[in-house]
Amino acid sequence: MSSIISCDIIDTITSPTNTVAAASLIRTSANNILPFTSRRLSFNMKIVVTGAAGFLGSRLADELLSASSPLCPSELLLVDSLAPAPRADPRVRTLALDLSASGAAESLVAADTAALFHLAAVVSGQAEEDFDLGLRVNFDATRALLEAARRRAPGLVFVFVSTCGVYGGELPPVVDERTAPAPETSYGMAKAAAELLVADYSRRGFVDGRSVRLPTVTVRGGAPNAAVTSFASGVVREPLRGLRSSLPVPAERELWVTAPGTVVRNLVRTAQVPGAALGGRRVLNLPGLRVSVRDMVAALRALAGEAVAARVVYEPNETIDRMVATFPIQFDNSMALRLGFEVNASFTDIVKEYINEIGNH
Ligand SMILES: NC(=O)c1ccc[n+]([C@@H]2O[C@H](COP(=O)([O-])OP(=O)(O)OC[C@H]3O[C@@H](n4cnc5c(N)ncnc54)[C@H](O)[C@@H]3O)[C@@H](O)[C@H]2O)c1
């Protein structure tokens, strides 16, 4: 038998008599067959993605619907306070919903929901500006979703998308999953608090939860967002569009970054690994690359030329730089790499991925 099972083949083998055999196989991105990892992840599964109108949520939806996706949703519910883009795929339902509204969480989870990817969030800069909004969306809505899963679909695979911004304070030279979070932003605080909920709901068997901390994701297309690390995308995106890019941090400031394509495949992988492999904390730091702003500009110069790189202007902003400087820049990602998560080879590769992407649109 081929090592690749397509969604079509899966549909034909999931008859009541051979469900067990089918459910023991899940296609991986490396086209290997992995042992079935969760009693809820099976074929014909219903999956929910929150934040599905956002940068990563909409890409995750596309990845889950793609022919190469290792998970094959029979129904994909895309939810966001802004209406998610419709897709020409009969498996997709879209819903515009404020997750912080009373009763919103319950309306998303059904008894046969197998997995929920929770990406909806108020990003760092906005959560710092508006404490109440940040707490309501980043913590209260996460708690409501966990509670809805506990009541309506116990054991559901709950992928909580967190951030390396949970770290701060005095850090060891190399950070790993055992390093205690000490957030110095309200965004990081709410994410860290939600991670604790995910771990305890999992320990009690209410959900099969996993929190993944994302590096800064770059290059983000479209308009700048309200994240304090927004410049990490602007430094490449705006000059390539012929626009000036203002850098609020000095050239030597370093960041821990990953590319959108890589992170989205890693999010899918997060749902596949056995929750117990992440230990009692149920957290994983997704792999990234350490890069200075100077080296980001150098990669842009090497690929697009001096005239493009010259559009980057250093205009340090103390408030932004102070927050960015609290984010760790060196991780030990051995747990993630052991579990088969991907990492980009270089920042040049990340810029190339973006140039290819804009070239294809
Ligand atoms: N992009 C990054 O660099 C990065 C880094 C670390 C962590 N993350 C995390 O990844 C996730 C996705 O990030 P992104 O870059 O796609 O952000 P994004 O801002 O593009 O998407 C977030 C989405 O959440 C939605 N949302 C906000 N409040 C909502 C509410 N009350 N109800 C329903 N939907 C609501 C927004 O409309 C938006 O579409 C977030 O949880 C973020 O904290 C992102």
From TrEMBL:
The keyword Cell division does not apply. Residues 47-243 form the NAD-dependent epimerase/dehydratase domain. GO terms for molecular function: oxidoreductase activity. PROSITE patterns: ADH_SHORT. InterPro entries: DenD, Epimerase_deHydtase, NAD(P)-bd_dom_sf, Sc_DH/Rdtase_CS. Keywords: Carbohydrate metabolism, NADP. Pfam families: Epimerase (PF01370). NCBIfam families: ErythonDh. This is NAD-dependent epimerase/dehydratase. It comes from Operophtera brumata.
